[in-house]
Design brief:
The complex is a heterodimer of chains A (358) and B (274). Chain A has 358 residues and is mostly helical. Chain A is built from 14 helices and 4 strands. The chains are: A mainly alpha (358), B alpha/beta (274). The complex binds adenosine-5'-diphosphate (ADP) and magnesium ion.
Chain lengths: 358, 274
């Protein structure tokens, strides 16, 4: 079956405003979900769960958070990792200090805490834009990490702020194996991605994009810039916060403030640049790409070296990785600013017309 | 560049249309940017349902005047009486909720969004549902999206742009972008519409279409229209009254025939090379 809309006439606006209006998209998403929930858990090895799938989902969620802020609302941020840290430490503290609090409630509260902090650091966006705002969010990045190291209460007086996440228990069941954690993370990420999709296709998302594209026109239409921008900071940080909580509780188990580095913030930014700024699908594609590329190069380069009898040392391999990385980011910034998601869309448009070129 | 009168075929305003009382009264408006006096002590009024043109050479302060009316600029002096309420200045959000919509001289569409989304955004002040309802697609969200979609489609039909509703506006030619921007303004069902050079850079056919839309809006919905336009043929044909600005000062005000024969106006236009 080819990808095309032909023959699918929408007879009502309701049909045209579904979550996925094109039938092939709907089927594709359902197949993907079925594979992720049913097939993968039976097939993947422990290594795949804990080293690839779980971090992929968590970073996709963080990238989605950043994409809401940067891609949809047009506010550049370099503090994503710090908001993840807020989420991780908040979830830890809620578990630690509130007797019998369900873990999912802690995750939600962690998201809300991050949202609050995000709004605080979003305040400068009311005055400044672009590069200067990015610098302000850079302040968030350093300040938050500094706070987590500086105030021992936040890490329950552990040395250098390291925390060990409590066990993940839901309705008496402990999520221990990588497979179980994968399923938990997957559920959270899928639900939040659907919510994000709903947000961006309704008036909340239109208000964000309007502010992004032309703020004077947006305000003349009756959009209040302040609440709209701050909501974007709140929602974005909520997503990053939940991602941070999952990062601590379902991926690493124990984390330290310095782990949520500027480098990690940049990594998340690169994910949306490569995946697609202003695209939910792009957040996933970008996360997959950035996480898989090093693995791919790790395996692929020595293999190539052997094939062509090139004297590659491990150091060279890591240099080449950095090079390829940089080159790709430049490529996407210059040639395809809408990233992989746009390439995918172009492919779909071609398919829609195939085999008739016009 | 200037259009000749004969090239445009425009229906004159319907004679049945009733012009009401003053709904917007601008009193002694002065606006400065640093040392630049954009507007100096300008007073004029706008009556309900009329088409009020603002003309004048480039840099005369026409766009600034519209920006004062819907609160983008705050004048240093003067008062604005809108629907009987006296204010020092307007605020964009307030102007929008009170029924003032506008288009811009340099198209200010939301470039990354489709035609439909741009027009839907025009209805945003009429939407009540919260972002939580949107995220969960629950409560008022669904029903509201559908109801407003229907309204947006009415605008799309009115402007005859059905074929491009799903096209990102950035990909449209200039003339269509202008039309979509009018659509976004109309979507708000405004009682007053401020149009900043809606026909600039258009060919004859596009100008005719735009004129027809403006007249139809005024006629069918009774929308008060404030129109900045350089094409004298159009201005004299469709407007009820004309204000003339020059170097931020008002030099003429009245029905087209009066303005056409005003000495100062003729001088300003000759001086500016028209
Ligand atoms: N935002 C602004 N900042 C500084 N000067 C401005 C601004 N907007 C308008 N002006 C000045 O005000 C004067 C009137 O401009 P404008 O209202 O755009 O004229 P018009 O629309 O009649 O061509 C010009 O001298 C212009 O340079
Ligand atoms: Mg102007």
């Amino acid at each position: 079956m080819l990808y095309r809309e032909a023959g699918q006439f929408k007879t009502s606006y309701a049909a045209d405003q579904q979550l996925f209006p094109i039938r092939q998209d709907r089927i594709g998403v359902l197949l993907l979900l079925a594979a992720a929930f049913l097939a993968v858990p039976g097939m993947a090895s422990e290594y795949w769960f804990s080293a690839i799938l779980i971090p992929f989902l968590i970073f996709a969620l963080a990238a989605l958070g950043l994409n809401i802020l940067t891609g949809y609302a047009g506010q550049l941020s370099l503090g994503s990792a710090a908001f993840m840290a807020v989420g991780a430490y908040a979830a830890y503290n809620f578990q630690l200090r509130v007797e019998g609090i369900p873990i999912l409630v802690s995750f939600a509260l962690a998201g809300l805490t991050a949202a609050g902090v995000g709004v605080l650091f979003g305040l400068p966006s009311l005055r400044i834009k672009g590069f200067y705002l990015a610098v302000a969010t850079l302040a968030a990045q350093f300040f938050i990490v500094w706070c987590l190291t500086k105030f021992p209460w936040l890490s329950n007086n552990s040395s250098s702020g390291v925390i060990s996440a409590q066990k993940v228990e839901i309705l008496g069941h402990i999520f221990e194996s990588p497979r179980e954690k994968y399923l938990l993370v997957l559920t959270v990420v899928v639900l939040m991605a659907l919510a994000a999709r709903n947000l961006v296709r309704t008036s909340t998302g239109r208000a964000w994009m309007a502010v992004r594209d032309m703020d004077v026109a947006a305000s003349v239409i009756g959009i209040r810039l302040m609440p709209t921008k701050l909501l974007a900071f709140a929602v974005s940080s909520f997503y990053c916060g939940v991602a941070g909580a999952l990062y601590a509780f379902c991926y690493l188990g124990s984390v330290e403030p310095d782990g949520f580095s500027l480098e990690m913030s940049f990594k998340i930014l690169f994910m949306i640049i490569i995946g697609g700024v202003g695209s939910i699908l792009g957040s996933f594609l970008g996360a997959a790409f950035i996480l898989l590329l090093p693995i791919f190069l790790d395996v692929g380069l020595p293999w190539l070296a052997e094939l062509f009898h090139l004297p590659f040392s491990t150091a060279t391999v890591s240099h080449i990785q950095t090079l390829v990385f940089g080159a790709l980011i430049m490529f996407f910034l210059i040639v395809e600013p809408h990233g992989l998601a746009r390439l995918w869309q172009i492919a779909k448009e071609k398919l829609r017309l195939w085999p008739f070129p016009h | 560049m200037n259009m000749k009168l004969e090239t445009l075929v425009i229906d004159p305003p319907a004679p049945t249309r009733k012009i009401g009382g003053v709904i917007l009264d601008l009193q002694n408006i002065s606006l400065r940017f640093g040392g630049v006096k954009a507007l100096t002590d300008i007073s004029f009024d706008i009556r309900e349902h009329e088409i009020r043109a603002i003309i004048g050479p480039n840099g005369a302060g026409k766009s600034s005047m519209l920006n004062v009316i819907n609160g983008v600029y705050h004048p240093q002096e003067g008062r604005i009486v809108f629907r009987g309420q006296e204010r020092r200045q307007m605020e964009p959000h307030m102007a929008a909720t009170q029924g003032i919509a506008r288009t811009f001289q340099n198209i200010a569409l939301f470039k990354g969004m489709t035609v439909l989304d741009n027009i839907m955004t025009g209805r945003i002040t009429k939407m009540k549902s919260t972002f939580v309802e949107h995220a969960l697609w629950f409560g008022r969200a669904r029903q509201e999206e559908l109801a407003h979609r229907r309204k947006a489609e009415e605008v799309i039909d009115f402007l005859e742009i059905q074929h491009i509703r799903k096209t990102p506006v950035g990909r449209l030619p200039y003339g269509l972008q202008k039309r979509v921007e009018l659509g976004r303004a109309l979507a708000a069902e405004p009682s007053m519409l401020l149009l900043d050079e809606p026909m600039a850079g258009m060919n004859v056919e596009e100008k005719q279409d735009m004129c027809r839309f403006i007249l139809d809006v005024n006629d069918q919905f009774g929308t008060t229209i404030v129109l900045i336009e350089h094409d004298m043929g159009v201005v004299m044909d469709i407007s009820d009254r004309v204000v003339v600005l020059d170097y931020g000062k008002k030099i003429g005000d009245g029905v087209p025939d009066e303005v056409k024969n005003n000495e100062e106006v003729i001088k300003a236009y000759l001086g500016a090379g028209h």
